[in-house]
Amino acid sequence: MSKKNQDVKVNEFWALARAFLKVYLPNARDVSQNTVKAYKQALETLIRYLEVSGCTRDTMNLEMLTPACVEGFIVWMSKDQNYKSRTCNLRLSAIKTFLRYCGRHAITNEAISRDVLALPMKKIQKEKIEYMSSEAVAAIMNAPDSGKILGRRNKAMLALLYDSAARVQELVDIEVGDLHLLDKAGTVSDPFVTLRGKGNKVRNVSLSPKTAKLILSYMKEFHPVATNREPLFYTRRTGSLWPLSVDSVGRALRNSADKARLRIHEVPERVYCHLLRKSRAMHLYMAGVPLPVIMELLGHASMNTTSGFYAFVTWEMVSDAMKKANEGHLDGEMLWKDPKIVKQLYILD
């Protein structure tokens, strides 16, 4: 290939990638900025793999993306980067979408291999959902120091994050005008918050009166004279209010978990924002809240997403159900909790 032809193909690759992210996704597909970020992250991961494989940015072109190359990309993500199968599939799906776009807009679509688009996703094994006990969550919620200004902010922030089961990005996107805590008489009545989810989908989530009062107390201190467009949780830069970063929220949660773990050993070693969301959903599920309601709370577009995570029972739920069904008939110690009995449940003999 001549240097001139190579330069044309390289320039085409980068031009298509930029147009895909800056024009096609936000305008033709009308996806949210967070979705654009996810596609950009997938492309950046692919570019990093090509660089690791010996390719330079000034030589990359579409013809390099052969089935063997993309298969190698999947193996590299899984083995070298330790990405979970679900993450690998998300990256692969984004790359396929990009290649379909290139197939429609490239000077020649011969470089877009149908075999690449036909590559299968990695098999995902369903795992039991990870969640925290109510006691662990309560300990984390109470861990921030109310005697300090950041402690009061963190207490309100974590309470809202758990009570609404919001994604962390949804939390930092909340503006003052998204809160609906008081009725016309100025009393707490049917409080709720408006969240902006994936794909710019909006949903209203009910809040407990306790959380509403905590947020109202926070508002008096942090938003004494507020406008509706101000970020609810913020940092000050150059005299303006900017939304708190997701990293700041995660750091506040981890610090609270570290303090809570000193008092309650049930707090996991690794606590992250999505774990709080899953814990809230599981607590509602175990309390008997129907899955369609949990689906609305979480902002899932498909019931399959919700049921795939939460539609299972634990031994405790079986026990509670049997206890209610046999109330007054079967009393005594729950022998299945005995370690020797439990061991018998999980052997091959």
Describe the structure in your own words.
The chain is mainly alpha-helical. The chain folds into 3 domains: 3-117, DNA polymerase, domain 1; 134-310, hpI Integrase, Chain A (Orthogonal Bundle); 315-345, no CATH class. It contains 15 helices and 5 strands. The strands form 2 sheets. A 3-stranded antiparallel sheet has the order 1-2-3, covered by helices on one side. Helix 11 (273-286) packs antiparallel against helix 12 (291-298). The radius of gyration is 25 Å and the shape is elongated. Mean pLDDT is 84; it is low at 345-349.
Structural class of the secondary elements?
Answer: mainly alpha
CATH topology tier name of the largest domain: hpI Integrase, Chain A
Number of strands: 5
Strand order, biggest sheet? Answer: 1-2-3
Q: Class of the largest domain in CATH?
A: Mainly Alpha
Helices, by number, come to: 15
Major sheet characteristics: 3 strands, antiparallel
List the secondary-structure elements in sequence, H or E: HHHHHHHHEEEHEEHHHHHH
Superfamily (CATH H level) name of the largest domain: Intergrase catalytic core
CATH architecture of the largest domain: Orthogonal Bundle
Termini distance?
A: 65 Å
Helix content percent band: 55-70%
The geometry reads as elongated
Radius of gyration: 25 Å
Percent of residues in beta strands: 5-15%
